[in-house]
Structure formats: structure tokens, C-alpha cells
Amino acid sequence: MVDKIEREYQGGKIRIVPIEEWHVVRVIEKLRESDRKEAWKAWRLRADEVARLSVESSEESFTILHEGEPTGLFGVSRASLFSETGIIWLLGTDGLEKIGYSLAKETRAVVDTLLEKYKKLMNWVDKKNCKSVLWLKRSGFEVEEAAPFGVYGEDFCYFWKEKRPSLKAGSSIKEEIK
Length: 178
Known about the structure:
This protein has about 180 residues and is of the alpha+beta class. Helix content is about 35%, strand content about 35%. It has a single domain, classed as Gcn5-related N-acetyltransferase (GNAT) (Aminopeptidase, 3-Layer(aba) Sandwich), CATH 3.40.630.30.
């Protein structure tokens, strides 16, 4: 579906590539503190456990490389065997901050491509993980108000994005709404 994306920006070169084992090891070593806390609050698991479970359960998973260095992992798994809803996730290093706007632009394109396979992408994010919430909004997700989630009902925000219906050739949005 998404093979590889490569772009050059003022901040350097960004590549989105399929995950390799060494990428997972490197990102886990340098994982953002906010991601470590979120993994614990939601699942009472260490971040390395969540990273490995996320990669193993994903139908598609990718590494974000900045100047050749793994700075993030993301992927999507089905909500259930026959579901058309995908559970999308992202774990990263502090290196993601250097490419924030460019990353949001690229991930928006990847998310739109993933929505060709899934009718809806969703998950939960820690309300206090402000950088992730901002990334989600910039990537085109709707982020709802905080609600209890996880093992101990911590404050998390549900986020989602649905596939937009495509217009028929030659029709307008007004005609499609009728």
C-alpha cells in the first residue's frame, strides 16, 4: 500500500519506509518520555512492550527516518478480524520535534492512503501528550474531549478520521449531499 516516501525539507531528508528490527531497537532506546508515560497509563506496560506488540499486531508498519536516523514508528492494525476500522499508532523519539510540520504533512498523505483500505482510523491519546494531540490535528484527525480510558480510566482523548465519500465524475458536492 505505502511502499516508501522520501522528501527533502529545510530540516533535512525525511523518509518513511517499512519497519526493520534495528529501527525498533533504536527508537525504543530513545523513546520520548511522553510515549513512555502514555504506554504505562493506558496499558500498565513498558514502552518497549507496547512498541513490540504494536509492530507485531500491525498489518502495516513504518519507520520515520530523519537524515537516516529512526525517529518514529507508526502503523495500523484492524480493530477486529473483519472490521474496516484500523487502529493507528505512533511512537517516537525527541527527534520528531525537529520535523514536526513536515511530518504532519507527510503523515497526512500516508493517512489518506491508509483510508483507501480502512473506512476509519482511530485510537486514544493521553490528554497530557500535547505534542501528539497537535500532530494528530495537523494530520487531519478529529480529537475529542478527554474521557476515561485504559486499565485505570485515565484521561485520554479519542481520535479518528474517516474516509470521505468520493464524488462521482462530473458531480458537485451539493449534488452528492442530496
